[in-house]
Amino acid sequence: MDVQARENAPGYAASGMAAARRPFERSVPPAVLVLVAPIAIALIAGLWSGLARIGVEVPALVRFLTVNHGALMVSGVVGTVIGLERSVAMGRPAAYAGPLLSAAGALALVAAPSWDGAPVLFVASAVAVVLLFLAFLRRQFATPLAVMTVGVACWGVGNVTWMVEGWAPRLILPWWIAFLALTIAGERLELTRFLPLRWPARATLWGAAGVLLVGPLVAFASEEAGLRLAGAGVLALGLWLVKNDTARRTYRRGGLASYAGVALLAAYGWLSVSGLALLAWALEPGLHYDTTLHTFFLGFVFGAIFAHAPIILPAITGLTVRYTLLFPAGLALLHGSLALRVAANLAEQPTLRELGGSLNVISVLVLAAAIVAGLVLGRRREGSPAAA
User: Fold this and answer.
1) What's the pLDDT band for 14 if we cut at 50, 70, 90?
2) Which of 16, 102, 286, 362 is most buried when burial is the number of CB atoms within 10 A of its CB?
3) Structural domain boundaries in the chain
4) Buried b (16+ CB within 10 A) or exposed e, 79-108
5) How distant, in Å, are the alpha carbons of 126, 167, 176, 339 from that of 113?
């Protein structure tokens, strides 16, 4: 993605980052460099432990991490990146407390999988990131920021539940689902804020968010009822995004816009599927559990990460990311392998499930390769006489 395309990307100018320096004057914030290694370690450990959970043979050391697979991916990787993105936008040293704490929690999960201190670090991280969002809201109230603030607060409640109750997935995961569903929805609203929402759209958005928030609360009294209610909220939010997101129009424009539009529409499709699965099965143990969680966390969350990577990474790193064919290749592999995994679960075919899960991991590695290639190509372009 070249400099001009990035500066024309939705939300870029509004974020205040367009003002800036010439390409060859930009530098990566030091905190970003510090956090690269912990995020990479958490991602690799999370992917390996995910393979172990579906029966793929992995080194014995990795098997001890299987219980922390979800925490590594949700809090260690995605939570850290979300906090880092907002910290860079604030631009103050204290703003990096949140992602630094969650990165420390991720390293703790890898180094000492049974240590009780890791959830405490994630609770502290969530508090720091919520305070950061509140600082932005004090500057100027906006619906996207409010939605994301509520989402990050859900992350904090889930982490507190983990700290107090121990690993109780049917109580914790609904909060983490609300965290990522609302944060990503708010991110999309922020990136497309030049399109005002009419009051019916705002009302239905907050209605879906309300149902999604009530579900985890009800789960403390009745897990099944709360989980089904959360599923209804997820489904409602998925349908809302399909109807109101600009991806419905931008996917026809070609190039990066088409890639991002297709990626987001596919992600919203998986979000709706995960809502239906949660509504129907309420995190029933076994293959239904696997289907419900991975349609959400892989199909929706990583699908949205695929869509946003070429746009958000330049804002975080200050570097140009060139769009290459590795991005759509990885996206196709992600959704194709997830469809295979879901079909294998429904047909109770463990061999195909292992294949689908292995291809899921490869698709994430292709995304990592696309990011590295995009950074290298972007750096070369910035250093060329024409760019200068």
Assistant:
1) very low
2) 102
3) 3-382
4) bbbbbbbbbbeeeeeebbbbbbbbbbbbbb
5) 20, 12, 20, 31
Q: Which residues of 140-152 are buried (b: 16+ CB within 10 A; e: fewer)?
A: eeebbbbbbbbbb
Report the distance separating Cα 97 and Cα 128, nearest Å.
6
Q: What is the pLDDT of residues 42-51, one digit of tens each?
A: 999 999 999 9
Alpha carbon of residue 346 to chain centroid: 26
Of the candidates 183, 189, 200, which has an alpha carbon nearest to the alpha carbon of residue 144?
A: 189
CATH superfamily of 3-382: Cytochrome c oxidase-like, subunit I domain (1.20.210.10)
Longest dimension (CA), the chain: 65
Task: Give the Cα separation of 384 and 177 in Å (integer).
Answer: 44
Phi, psi of 322, rounded to the nearest 5 degrees: -80, 135
Q: How far apart are CA 388 and CA 382, in angstroms?
A: 7
31 by Cβ neighbours in 10 Å (0-12 / 13-18 / 19+) ranks as middle
Could you identify the residue written with the tokens 């149902």?
A: 211
Q: pLDDT of 143-189, one tens digit each? A: 899 999 999 999 999 999 999 999 999 999 999 999 999 999 999 98
Helix/strand/coil for 39: helix
8 A C-beta contact, residue 225 and residue 218: yes
Angle at 187 between CA 31 and CA 281, to 5 degrees: 110
Under the phi-then-psi rule, with left for phi > 0, alpha for psi from -120 to 50, and beta for the rest, what region is 19? Answer: alpha
The CA distance from 304 to 253, in Å, is 19
Residue given tokens 């982490």 in the structure block? 159
Kindly state the DSSP code that residue 292 receives in the 8-state scheme.
H
- The structure tokens 């936008």 sit at 89
Could you give the C-alpha distances from 385 to 24, 131, 250, 323, in angstroms and in order? 11, 43, 32, 20
- Spatial separation of the C-alpha atoms in residues 360 and 76, rounded to whole Å: 19
Across the range 234-242, mean pLDDT stands at: 96
Separation of alpha carbons 324 and 99, rounded Å = 29
H helix runs in 54-168, sequence order: 60-63, 69-71, 80-90, 97-111, 117-139, 143-165
The radius of gyration of the chain from alpha carbons, rounded to an integer in Å, stands at 20
Q: Based on the number of CB atoms within 10 Å of its own CB, is 42 exposed (0-12), middle (13-18) or buried (19 or more)?
A: buried
The residue with tokens 């939010």 is: 237
